[in-house]
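User: Okay, second chain of the day. Same drill as before: sequence in, C-alpha coordinates out.
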Amino acid sequence: MDQARDDIWAIEHRHSVRRFTGEAVPADVRAELERAVAAANATSGLHMQLTWDEPEAFKTMLAHYGKFQNACNYLALVGPKGPDLDEPCGYFGEKIVLLAQRLGLNSCWVGGTFSRKRTRCDVGAGEKGGR
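Assistant: Same drill. C-alpha coordinates below.
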Protein backbone atom coordinates (compact mmCIF):
# COMPACT_ATOMS: atom_id res chain seq x y z
CA MET A 1 0.00 0.00 0.00
CA ASP A 2 2.93 2.37 0.54
CA GLN A 3 3.80 2.18 -3.18
CA ALA A 4 0.25 3.21 -4.13
CA ARG A 5 0.36 6.09 -1.66
CA ASP A 6 3.76 7.18 -3.03
CA ASP A 7 2.39 7.06 -6.58
CA ILE A 8 -0.63 9.16 -5.61
CA TRP A 9 1.65 11.72 -3.97
CA ALA A 10 3.82 11.84 -7.11
CA ILE A 11 0.78 12.23 -9.38
CA GLU A 12 -0.56 15.08 -7.25
CA HIS A 13 2.80 16.90 -7.19
CA ARG A 14 4.04 16.25 -10.71
CA HIS A 15 3.97 19.09 -13.23
CA SER A 16 5.87 19.78 -16.44
CA VAL A 17 9.15 21.63 -16.00
CA ARG A 18 11.14 22.99 -18.93
CA ARG A 19 13.76 25.00 -17.04
CA PHE A 20 16.25 23.04 -15.02
CA THR A 21 18.96 24.12 -12.58
CA GLY A 22 21.88 22.57 -14.43
CA GLU A 23 23.00 20.81 -11.23
CA ALA A 24 24.18 17.23 -11.60
CA VAL A 25 21.76 14.51 -10.57
CA PRO A 26 23.18 12.77 -7.46
CA ALA A 27 24.75 9.34 -8.03
CA ASP A 28 22.29 7.53 -5.73
CA VAL A 29 19.30 9.01 -7.62
CA ARG A 30 20.86 8.06 -10.95
CA ALA A 31 21.44 4.52 -9.73
CA GLU A 32 17.86 4.12 -8.54
CA LEU A 33 16.49 5.39 -11.85
CA GLU A 34 18.85 3.11 -13.80
CA ARG A 35 17.64 0.11 -11.77
CA ALA A 36 14.01 1.05 -12.45
CA VAL A 37 14.65 1.41 -16.18
CA ALA A 38 16.42 -1.96 -16.31
CA ALA A 39 13.50 -3.61 -14.47
CA ALA A 40 10.93 -1.94 -16.74
CA ASN A 41 12.85 -3.02 -19.84
CA ALA A 42 13.02 -6.62 -18.57
CA THR A 43 9.27 -6.65 -17.91
CA SER A 44 8.13 -4.80 -21.02
CA GLY A 45 10.56 -5.81 -23.77
CA LEU A 46 11.34 -2.13 -24.33
CA HIS A 47 14.83 -0.65 -24.75
CA MET A 48 14.40 2.56 -22.70
CA GLN A 49 17.64 4.38 -22.00
CA LEU A 50 18.65 7.10 -19.58
CA THR A 51 21.20 9.63 -20.77
CA TRP A 52 23.01 11.91 -18.35
CA ASP A 53 24.86 15.21 -18.85
CA GLU A 54 24.18 15.47 -22.59
CA PRO A 55 22.80 18.87 -23.71
CA GLU A 56 23.09 18.41 -27.50
CA ALA A 57 19.67 16.79 -27.98
CA PHE A 58 18.01 20.02 -26.86
CA LYS A 59 20.13 22.45 -28.87
CA THR A 60 17.53 23.01 -31.57
CA MET A 61 15.33 25.90 -32.62
CA LEU A 62 12.26 23.92 -31.55
CA ALA A 63 13.73 23.33 -28.10
CA HIS A 64 14.36 27.06 -27.83
CA TYR A 65 10.75 27.67 -28.89
CA GLY A 66 9.63 25.15 -26.26
CA LYS A 67 11.59 27.20 -23.68
CA PHE A 68 13.82 24.33 -22.56
CA GLN A 69 16.74 25.49 -20.44
CA ASN A 70 19.56 23.32 -19.03
CA ALA A 71 17.86 20.13 -20.27
CA CYS A 72 20.71 17.62 -20.37
CA ASN A 73 19.31 14.42 -18.82
CA TYR A 74 16.63 12.42 -20.54
CA LEU A 75 14.87 9.09 -20.85
CA ALA A 76 14.63 7.78 -24.41
CA LEU A 77 11.60 5.58 -24.99
CA VAL A 78 12.73 2.95 -27.51
CA GLY A 79 11.22 -0.39 -28.37
CA PRO A 80 10.37 -2.87 -31.11
CA LYS A 81 8.66 -1.38 -34.16
CA GLY A 82 4.97 -2.13 -34.28
CA PRO A 83 1.54 -0.58 -33.99
CA ASP A 84 1.37 -1.09 -30.22
CA LEU A 85 4.67 0.56 -29.21
CA ASP A 86 3.16 3.78 -27.84
CA GLU A 87 1.15 2.05 -25.10
CA PRO A 88 4.04 0.33 -23.29
CA CYS A 89 6.24 3.41 -23.81
CA GLY A 90 3.60 5.58 -22.17
CA TYR A 91 2.88 3.16 -19.33
CA PHE A 92 6.47 2.31 -18.40
CA GLY A 93 7.73 5.79 -19.20
CA GLU A 94 5.23 7.30 -16.77
CA LYS A 95 6.32 4.83 -14.08
CA ILE A 96 9.86 6.21 -14.44
CA VAL A 97 8.58 9.81 -14.49
CA LEU A 98 6.68 9.23 -11.23
CA LEU A 99 9.74 7.66 -9.63
CA ALA A 100 11.82 10.66 -10.70
CA GLN A 101 9.22 12.94 -9.09
CA ARG A 102 9.38 10.95 -5.84
CA LEU A 103 13.18 11.29 -5.96
CA GLY A 104 12.91 15.07 -6.22
CA LEU A 105 13.41 15.47 -9.96
CA ASN A 106 11.04 17.39 -12.17
CA SER A 107 10.49 16.43 -15.78
CA CYS A 108 8.57 17.12 -18.96
CA TRP A 109 7.34 14.78 -21.67
CA VAL A 110 8.94 15.78 -24.99
CA GLY A 111 7.78 14.86 -28.48
CA GLY A 112 9.17 17.02 -31.25
CA THR A 113 11.30 19.64 -29.53
CA PHE A 114 14.58 17.73 -29.57
CA SER A 115 16.97 16.37 -32.19
CA ARG A 116 16.80 12.60 -32.58
CA LYS A 117 20.12 12.70 -34.46
CA ARG A 118 21.88 14.41 -31.56
CA THR A 119 20.74 12.02 -28.84
CA ARG A 120 23.10 9.41 -27.46
CA CYS A 121 20.45 6.72 -27.40
CA ASP A 122 20.81 3.48 -29.33
CA VAL A 123 17.95 2.61 -31.65
CA GLY A 124 18.71 -0.80 -33.10
CA ALA A 125 17.46 -2.50 -36.23
CA GLY A 126 13.77 -3.25 -35.81
CA GLU A 127 13.37 -0.54 -33.14
CA LYS A 128 12.01 2.96 -33.02
CA GLY A 129 11.32 5.65 -30.47
CA GLY A 130 7.86 5.79 -28.96
CA ARG A 131 5.78 8.93 -29.13
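The chain has a mean pLDDT of 83.

User: Thanks, on to the next one.
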